[in-house]
Amino acid sequence: MVSKLKILAVPILIVSLCMISVSYALDDAMWEAEYQTADDELNKQYKILMKKLRPKEKEQLRKTQRAWLKFRDAYYDFYKAVDFDYMPQTMLLESIDKRTNEIKDDIKRLTRPL
Asked: CA end-to-end span of the chain, whole Å?
């Protein structure tokens, strides 16, 4: 009887591991889609703000955005390295959304026309 259970347990374990792999693949695909949507919105708002700025202001915004990207990427790496009870991908999406909202606020603060 025990040997029959062992024989049945192996295929069940293999199927379970395959299901977990498929689940992670779906999660990765969903995360990629969410990331792309957030990144597209950030880039859209960045371009809108750039159109409202003078040349010197544009250069300053470029510097600021490059510094933010370095910070965001370093912070993401930190989240991946530390065992937080929080997914690094979630932190990354929240960071992008926060930056997008900051840029939207900057657009509202500028009163000059496009």
From this structure: 79
CA–CA separation, 49 and 58 (whole Å): 9
pLDDT confidence of residue 31: 86
Q: Tell me if 41 is assigned to some domain.
A: yes
**Can you give the residue range of the structural domain that contains 67?**
31-109
Instruction: Evaluate whether residue 12 is within a structural domain.
Output: no
> Exposure of 53 by Cβ count < 10 A (0-12 exposed, 13-18 middle, 19+ buried)?
middle
Predicted structure pTM score: 0.74
Question: Is pLDDT at 55 greater than 90 in this prediction?
Answer: yes
**Other Cβ atoms closer than 10 A to 49:** 19
Residue 95 lies in a domain: yes
2 belongs to a structural domain: no
Domains in the chain, number: 1
pLDDT above 60 (res 50): yes
Quote the tokens at residue 18: 């395959």
Q: Residues near 76 by Cβ (< 8 Å), separated by ≥ 6? A: 88, 91, 92, 95
